[in-house]
Design a protein that fits this description.
The chain is of the alpha+beta class. The protein is built from 1 helix and 3 strands, in the order H-E-E-E. A 3-stranded antiparallel sheet has the order 2-1-3, with no helix packed on it. Strand 1 and strand 2 form a beta hairpin.
């Protein structure tokens, strides 16, 4: 997790569309941009570029 608990709480409420990569709210049934029902939660870990 990150440095700030407020930011962590906000990130945990985001879902990402697997089709168009748009950000959506947690309670969304389908993507707001493309209408696809395939969603995943946003990653919580910090990834470092190689």
């Amino acid at each position: 997790m990150g440095k700030f608990p407020e930011a962590d709480a906000y990130i945990s409420n985001i879902f990402i569309c697997r089709k168009c990569k748009a950000r959506n709210k947690r309670g969304a049934e389908k993507c707001r941009k493309c209408g696809s029902p395939y969603m995943r939660p946003k990653r919580k870990d910090i990834r470092v570029k190689k």
